[in-house]
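Continuing from the previous page...

OK, I double-checked the sequence for Phosphohydrolase against my notes and this is the correct one:
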Amino acid sequence: MKRVTLMEVFTHPITQKYLKRSGIAHAIKTADHAFRLAIAFNVNPDLATKAALLHDIGHYEWYTDGKWDYEKYRKNDIHAIKGANRAHKLLIRLGEKPEAAKQIALAILLHTDSYLPDGNLKQNPLQRIVRLADELDEEPGGMHHYRQIDEKLALKKIRTLDKKVEKYYSQLKSIV
Ligand SMILES: [Fe+2]
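Thanks. Re-ran it with the corrected sequence; updated structure tokens here:
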């Protein structure tokens, strides 16, 4: 079965529409971190980079009178739930294997516990990596969501990441 590439995922209009809200530069940087962590911890880099790239695809714009409303966001946000659902739908549509789409969706669902009731979350290595990759790129006050990246450079980085994943992809047997 042919691998669905990061390029296919990234350039899809759904991805472009929603990642522009949460920041394309942040999504790519998180995918970069996820690749390195996946190799270091022997996790499938294909799943890790896709989940990292799409982890914030569920964001909604919380505005009050034209201004970003952080309080409203903290109180009402469910971006991990929406993101998991959105990413799953997109990946299946692109021809992703259902098992892989599920693993990616779950990693997105659990990349943050800001929306969950208190308690300890038991995460598998893939889920931990995506969370850690996101945290590595976080800036105070959520500024990482506003960092910009040139469109051509973004495509170049995605292409490079695809090449790196393909190199390791065949060497990993397990799905997680
Ligand atoms: Fe994030």
